[in-house]
Amino acid sequence: MAKRSTRSRPSRSIAAQSAISSGAAITNNMVGVSEAKAGIMSGTDGSKPSLVWARYDGAPFTAGNLGGWQPYWGMPGSEISRERALVSSVTVDLLMSNPVIAALVEGFSTYAVGNGLTLSSRPNYAALGITKEAAGELSHQIETAWQAWAKNGAECDASGRHSLHQLAVAAYKSFLLTGETLFAIDWQKSVGAVSRTKVNMLDVRQLDQTITRIAEGNGGGSIMQGVQFDTNGRVEGYWIRPFVLGSFSSAPQAVFVKARTSWGRTRIGHLFDLIVPGQIRGISPLAAALTPAHSKSTLREFGLAAALVQSMVAATVESDLPRDAALRSLTTADAMDMPAPAGVSPEAWAEARASYYENVKVNLQPGLVTHMYRGDKLVMHRPNSPNMVHDVLDKSLSREAAKAAGSSAEDVSGDYSQTSFSASRLAQELPWRINKRRRSAIVEPFYQAVFTAWLEEACETGRIRLPNGAPAFWQATDAYSTAVWRGEGKPVADPLKAAQADILEIENGLSTLEAKLGERGLDFEEVLAQRKAEREQLEAAGLPHPVPKNRDDFDPEGDERPATSGNRTDD
Description:
single chain; 571 residues; alpha+beta; 4 domains; five-stranded antiparallel beta sheet; three-stranded antiparallel beta sheet; 16 helices; 39% helix; extended; disordered N terminus; disordered C terminus
């Protein structure tokens, strides 16, 4: 992990194997690359580091990975492989010290996972040869059992500490920081747990990226950065360094773990966002945001230092006395009376003034009045930093970092005071789409892999009762494990206007209730069942049931309701 910079010791390049203090340059032995520099460089002040990424003078399509074997021919995805370790180290380091990176990681994980994704089980009743009603009963049974299992850390977590939703947040934060999510689905018996399916979250550094060679055995294939492929380029397994929580006295060697069992059950999950064809490992989506985020932090530190320096000398005494005598007045001792000096000679006059300030001190505490000697005056100085240029540059760096990471400047700064309703909607639209794409690429596959493994055990052990005439789980795995995952709803700037827009789209046939409920992170069938149950309970208690207003003439841009409106009936 990278070391944080201090004032007493300048920070060097954090992942370089050969770095020089004058530039902290990392030189890779690659064809067509001239003096590629990456990492944390020495700053302009000689102390504060500056973050600069790779710049190439030659052909950029080269091979190899940082610190590992580097063939001389070009390979797909090699640029990502070369930089990923360095980017991960810098990102994790800045998470602890940079407010922008910390805000991005926390915000993205909250949008993507929140309190956890909700399961909407959708067994394929046609493929299973059962009725739709039987599939509905099976779905309800699965969802109820899954919810209890996912919330129980003793059941779902290999360490017995966290719920599945907490593990999902950790998995997504790992993706944000390192570009990858790595987990194992173990089979173990634990005290206090009924099921044996357990999720074991792994640090991505346990996937040994230094192993790159031809795979041993008759099957052939190859190993690239700890990932083993067969001769057709399909993943066979991973070279994992095993680590037991609480054990720190050993340095385990990597062992090969198959990606799946012989019948298709997931053993190791390795998720990342595919950027280029042939990519083996992932890279943090915050990589492009690191430079402006670090520059913003540097700007604030220098701005604070300038303000402190200027505020240190807040008052001066203007006097025609010698310099030492005048400066003696700038202390904090209490004022004292003294008799007037005798004589009117210049020497006696100067001595009297000097003696006066040895006993009468200037006190800048509020509520006190200090008497200056005749002819002297106290001059106050105002600091003029930060200034307008500082504020403009600070906001520019915030916008640049947010945009590079796929967020909005308001989310990074937390300042919505200068943002209108329309601008806030536009600012949230693209980040929300990016969030949905990342959720479908990382979070949903994580949940789906765990759900399929859990459902296999639950069905095979009889904890989930299959409908009469339905095949065994292993005969129709996909049909049983079909599911939709619901996450946190889309953030809105004005809930009233958003609801009015949804009503307009539904009434004009541009959308459906299921689609709009899905945008809010709700399941249509669950909402329908809940509304029906609430209505029956209200009627049983003799209470009126609220009905929606028929507002044919409402103004979607206004906040006022029409003076009169009819009510829809339920008949």
